[in-house]
Amino acid sequence: MEVLVVGAGEMGRWAGATLASEFDVAYADRDPEAARAAAATTADARAVALDASETFDAVCLAVPISAAADAVADHAPRADRAVFDVTGVMAPSVAAMREAAAEAERLSLHPLFAAANAPGNVAAVRDAPGPVTDRVCDALAAAGNRVFETTPAEHDEAMETVQAGAHAAVLAYALAAEDVREEFATPVSEALSALSRTVTGGNPRVYREIQESFSGADRVADAAAELAAADGETFERLYREANANADANADANAGGDGAEENEPP
User: Fold this and answer.
1) What keywords sit in the KW lines (predicted)?
2) Statement to judge: residues 94 and 165 lie in one domain
3) pLDDT grade, residue 264 (50/70/90)?
4) Dihedral sign, CA of 28, 30, 33, 38?
């Protein structure tokens, strides 16, 4: 059984390498050299032309969020049995797959980590499950990932907090922080500086697409403005609210950063 991975960027290469335990893998990318390079690093994989007419048992879309709907429309017809994506947004991707592959098995996946930090948690919407998509999930689990089920609405709402909001908060600190001597560092500032290096060490286009796709940054900005304007009593109330929220969300926010390096096909 062969899967075509459309998009040979970081997340596409991760998908292909992970699926290689269960599938033969082919890569296609708008940059043929990227597809060939990905194939060279995946056991028994091959590169194919992006616009070829060849069909495959399954097609995996590993493209940027902004390209997801068009990529599904273009490449889902190449799937004989199943189509799935690892694009990072679920409601638009699931809707596009339903339209373009109404008779096929359908699955939307979001690895909540950069590929270099694998394995980790993988959100899954089993929109039209079957033996091929089950095999995809089995390959992910066999590689040490925790695949958990969600809905498109729940996933996309969660991304407002764990991606758009979290990234905005870290980037705002990085932009606002003054250069101070190392001796002045506190445990909190050291942790924020480390997070700043993690977020700013990626691809700005990836983070831009997250901010454009999910709200959440505006709530961070509003909360910061409220704190900055608070009198003493108001600040203590906000502090207690923050403490309650931190306790409630500690488990949900644990783990590595979830911005992926999806490259356009």
Assistant:
1) Oxidoreductase
2) no
3) very low
4) negative
The model's pLDDT over 127-154, given as tens digits with 9 standing for 90+, comes to: 999 999 999 999 999 999 999 999 999 9
Placement of tokens 């729940």 in the chain: 154
CB atoms within 10 A of CB 249: 12
**Alpha-helical regions (H) of the chain:** 10-19, 32-40, 68-75, 91-100, 131-142, 152-159, 166-176, 187-200, 204-213, 217-229, 232-249
CA–CA distance, 199 with 196 (Å, rounded to integer): 5
Amino acid in the structure at residue 172: A
SS3 216: coil
Do 60 and 84 contact (CB within 8 A), yes or no? yes
Q: How many CA atoms are closer than 13 Å to the CA of 247, on its beta-carbon side?
A: 5
- The sign of the dihedral angle between the CA atoms of 179, 182, 183, 189 is positive
- Number of domains the chain contains: 2
In a domain, 262, yes or no: no
pTM of the predicted protein model:
0.89
* Same domain as 195, residue 138: no
Residue with tokens 């705002």: 172
Contact 111, 145 (CB under 8 A): yes
3-state secondary structure 86-152: CCCCCHHHHHHHHHHCCCCEEEEEEECCCHHHCCCEEEEEEEECCHHHHHHHHHHHHCCCEEEECCH
Q: At what angle do helices 10-19 and 131-142 cross, to 10 degrees?
A: 100
Residue 27 has φ and ψ, to the nearest 5°, of -115, 145
- Which DSSP symbol is given to 23? S
pLDDT 10s digits, 181-214: 999 999 999 999 999 999 999 889 999 999 999 9
